[in-house]
Amino acid sequence: MADQNAVLTALRTVNDPELHRDIVSLNMVRELTVEDGRVAFSIVLTTPACPLRETIDTDVRAALANVPGIQAVEIDWGAEVRSTHREGGPKPVQGVRNVIAVASNKGGVGKSTVSVNLAVALARLGAKVGLLDADITGPNIPTMMGLEGGIQASGQQGLHPVEAHGVQAVSLGFVLPAGTPVVWRGPMIGSGVRQLMHDVDWGDLDYLIIDLPPGTSDASMSMAQDALIAGAVIVSTPSKVSVEDARKAVGMFDRLGVPIFGVVENMSSDIFGRGGARDAAEDLGLEFLGEIPLDAAVRQGGDDGVPVVVAQPESEIAAAFIHLAEQVAARCSVLQFAGESGGM
Ligand SMILES: Nc1ncnc2c1ncn2[C@@H]1O[C@H](COP(=O)(O)OP(=O)(O)O)[C@@H](O)[C@H]1O
Ligand SMILES: [Mg+2]
What is the reported pTM? Predict the structure, then answer.
C-alpha cells in the first residue's frame, strides 16, 4: 500500500533538471499527505518564472505511477525565491533577495528596453519585481514605464518606488525635472546609485533589475562594490561591433567578481543579422539567454510607456521576453545552489 515513505522514496528519484538534485533533498516537496490512495503535496519551485514546471510535473507523475496503491495525485504549485545574500559579503539591499544587473558596453543596443520588459515579464510570471534606472547618461525608464518625472521626491519620507505594470520602479529621472542635462561628475554618480539602491524603501522583492549606464562607468563599479549582485545580463545586438563591446562588459564583470547569467541578443533581424551574440556567448563560455527580434511594436511600447509584454501579451515578441525572464530566473536559481554547495 502507498504510504508516506513509499511516496517520498519515489519522489527522491525526481531531479530538478536545472539544479541536478532531487526535489526532496532540495526541500521542494512540502505538506505531503497520503490518505486512502490519495496523495497530495506542494511543490515549491525556486522561482515562479520556472521554465521547467511541466517537465517536473511529468517526471513526478511518472515516478508515482510506479508506486502501487495510488489512485490520485494532487499537486499544489508554489514558489519561493531564495536570496543571494551571504554572511560577510557586500551589504544586501534591504528587502531584496536578488539584484540583477542589465549591462552593455555601449548605448542604443536596447538595454533599457530589455530591462523594462524583463522586469514586467518576471512580474507577470508571479515574481515581486523592482526596476532601478541607474543610467545617469539617459534615464529613460520613466518614459518606457509610462511614469511622470518628479513624483518621487517625497521630502523627509525619502524615496519610494512607484508601481507601474506590476513593477516597483525608481529612476534618477524621477528626482530630476524632465530635460535636465545630467552633468554629475564621477563621484556623484556613484553616490547617486548608492542612494537609489540603499535609501529606497523597496518593500519585499524577489528580483531587483538594474538598468546600468553603458560601459565601464563609475556607476557600475560603485554598484558592484556596494551591493551583492546575483548576476549580470549582457545585452548585445547581432552586429560584430556590438558583440565586441559585449566582450568588454564581460571583462568588467569578471574583474568585479560579478557572475554573468548570460548574453541576450536584441534586434535580431534579416537586416541586422542574427546569431552574432549567440556565437560570441559561445566563444566567451557564457550562456545564451535568447534573442529578441527587431520589431516596431517594441519601440512603440517604449514610446507609449506600455511595454510590449503588457501591450501585446499574446505576441511572439512578448513570448521572447517571457522566455528571457524564465532563463534569467533559472540562471539565478542555479548560481545560488552552486554557491551553497561550493560549486557543482
Ligand atoms: N527589439 C527591438 N525592436 C525594435 N526597436 C527596439 C528594440 N529594442 C530596442 N529598440 C528601440 O531602440 C532604441 C534604443 O533602445 P534603448 O532600450 O533605449 O537602448 P539603450 O538603453 O541600450 O540605450 C529605442 O528607441 C528602443 O525603443
Ligand atoms: Mg537606456
Answer: 0.89
